[in-house]
Amino acid sequence: MDAPEFAARVRERFEAGTNKTLATIRRDGSPRISGTELEFDDLGRITLGMMPASMKELDVRRDPRVAIHSPTLEPPKDDPAGWLGEAKFAGTLRDIPAPQGSPFPQAPHFELDITEAVLVYVVGDELAVESWHPGRGWTRITRR
């Protein structure tokens, strides 16, 4: 709600494909990446489910901090500025009841409490990085 245009563009990147990448923290503190799917509900909340007793569920139960990357879309070979970009979230997952109508009501379901949202894309010959953090709001920088 703090940056609706930015939020809409981040959501668009996440909805560009089904498969996202989830990073969790293993028992020994090292990272683990897994494929995942997520959904945005009517209020803009981000939810996801997991297979019961999966390694990522065990990781999240032990340490709920995660990072999630949008689907990776390749830039056009002859037009890097035509790349639609990528989006990322960081935050913590919190247990929620299965959404009504879920095809897997017994599976664990989580909602993401966002601590960071990032959008990266190319403008001309520069890389643009937009981000949002609670309490700090939206920022944009460019790099050559």
Explain this structure to me?
- The protein is mainly beta and 144 residues long.
- It has one domain (4-143): Electron Transport, Fmn-binding Protein, Chain A (Pnp Oxidase, Chain A, Roll).
- It contains two helices and nine strands.
- The protein has helices spanning 4-14, 55-62, and strands spanning 20-25, 31-36, 39-40, 46-49, 65-69, 86-96, 109-123, 126-133, 137-143.
- Strands 1, 2, 3, 4, 5, 6, 7, 8 and 9 form a nine-stranded antiparallel beta sheet that branches.
- The protein starts with a helix and ends with a strand.
Keywords:
2 helices, single chain, Pnp Oxidase, Chain A, 144 residues, 9-stranded antiparallel sheet, mainly beta
How would you briefly describe this protein structure?
The protein has helices at residues 4-14, 55-62, and strands spanning 20-25, 31-36, 39-40, 46-49, 65-69, 86-96, 109-123, 126-133, 137-143.
CATH class wording:
Mainly Beta
Shape, principal axes of CA atoms? globular
Please give the count of helices.
2
CATH homology group: Electron Transport, Fmn-binding Protein, Chain A
Find the CATH topology.
Pnp Oxidase, Chain A
Largest sheet: 9 strands, antiparallel
- The CATH architecture category equals Roll
Mean pLDDT: 93
What structural category do the secondary elements indicate?
Answer: mainly beta
By DSSP, the count of extended strands is: 9
Helix content: 10-25%
Distance between the termini: 30 Å
